[in-house]
Amino acid sequence: MKILCVNLNAAIDKTIVIENFSLDAIHRPRAVLAQGGGKGANVARVVTVLGGAPIVTGFVGGWAGRFIETQLRREQIATAFVRVPGESRTCLSILDPARRTLTEIYERGEPIPRAALRELRVQYRARLSRCAMVTLSGSLPANVPATFYADLIALARKNAIPVLLDSSGDALRLGLAARPLLIKPNRAELRALVQRELATLDAVADAACQIARAYQTIVVASLGARGAIAAQDDHIWRATIPKIQTVSAVGSGDAMLAGLAISFTRGAPLENALRLGTAAGAANARTLGAGRLKKIDLRRLMNQIKIEKIA
Q1: b/e per residue 212-234 (b: at least 16 CB within 10 A)
Q2: Where is 232: in which H helix or E strand?
Q3: What is the CA radius of gyration of the chain?
Q4: Burial of 210 (0-12, 13-18, 19+ CB in 10 A)
Q5: Do 77 and 108 form a contact (C-beta atoms < 8 A)?
Q6: Which of 13, 96, 166, 254 is catalytic?
Q7: Is the pLDDT of residue 109 over 90?
Q8: Among this protein's residues, is 151 annotated catalytic?
C-alpha cells in the first residue's frame, strides 16, 4: 500500500553553498543542488529511502512544474499532480558553512484556481482506497481556503485512512480540529497552538500533552538539535540525539515525518516510530539537500538515539 504525500505548494528547491556569504557582493558557489521539492516531496523522497512506496500529489505549473515532476520520477517517486496556470515557485537556500548560517528565500507561489482545487479533491478521494497513510505537509498556496487540510483529513477519516499533518497557522489549527492521527509542530508552532511561552522542555512536554488529550491525537514536537517530544494521551516520550556534524538541516522535519509515517504503516508503536523519525531527521542534517540521507548515517543514529518515557 502506498503513502499519499500531499504537496500543495510544490517547488524547485535550490540549495547554494557559499563560503563567507555577504550582501552587496558577487559570489561563486562551491556547490549548487536543484531538485523537485516542497515539503511533501521531501517526505516522499525519504519514504522511498526507507523502503516505502509514496505517491506525491499537489499542484504544479509551467516549466518549473515539469522540472519538479521529471526530477521526482527520476528518483522512482510516483507523481499525480494537478496542472495549473503559471509557474511553480522556487525556494532558495543559501548555506554558508564558514559562518554556519542559512539564508532562505521562499517564493509564495501562484494562486490556485477553484477548478484545480475541485480536481485535486476528486483525485484525492479516488486514491484513498489504495493508500495506507496520508501525509499533509507545508503551507497552503494562495486562494486555497484555510480549511483545505481539514477537509482532506475528514475525507480520509471517512475511509479509515490515518493522516499525519505538518503545517502551521490556521491550516494547522483547523486541521487539528479535524482529528488527524498525528501533528508534528516545531516549538514555535506548538506555542501558537497553546498561546503561551514554551521556554523549557517541561513546558513543551506539558503543551504537547495538553493538545494530545484535547484532540485525541499524537503530538510530536520537533526540537532541532535537541531531539523531539512526543505525547499520546497522558504519556510523554523524549528523544535525544547525539551531537552530529550538520551539513544542512533543510528538510529534516520532513525526513522525521517520513520516518513516523513508514513506522506507523508497519504497525510500530509510537516509541519505535519516534526513534526512526528522529534518526531520519538527524541523518538528513548530515547531507546536502532536503529529504536526502545516507542509510549508513541512519543505522548509526538509530543505535545512538535515546528514547526516554518521562510520563
Answers
A1: beebebbbbbbbbeebbbbbbee
A2: strand 228-232
A3: 18
A4: middle
A5: no
A6: 254
A7: no
A8: no
